[in-house]
Amino acid sequence: MEEERANRFQGFLDMTSEMNRMRQLGMYGYEPGWEDRERTHANAWVPTADVYAKGEDLFIRLALAGVKREDVELTLQENMLTVSGERSRDLDEEEVSFYVHELYYGVFRRTMTLPSGVDQSKINAEFYNGLMEITIRGAAAAAEPRRIEIRERSDSE
Question: Minimal CB count within 10 Å: which of 50, 53, 58, 156?
Fold first, then answer.
């Protein structure tokens, strides 16, 4: 029987990005005119992601269909990995009539907290078939928790 592996990356996904993604879908979903609203971090579309470990390496795969590689930026600051960019609309809305309008266009941003101590030189990113795959070598290697002694407090203290 395979031993169940503890999720050492609990809290890995930036909760704000996830909540914004759900809020956008719920509030603006497929409502006509949502794309005309001003884009901010709070309502920018957020690409979906898979995060998984293979051996000691951590992998992040983001769905970026219709986004050009040169329109994506990847940054690391204080263990915060941010993928941002823009998906441009290639249709002239004055020339077409939409029957269904479900794709998100405009700016996007996704921020994730990496385990502490990640070395930027160990991060690689590749773009292919509408996916961006980020490999972080050694980031899935689990550091064992350290036990802290609890001492008895005496009445004289």
Answer: 156
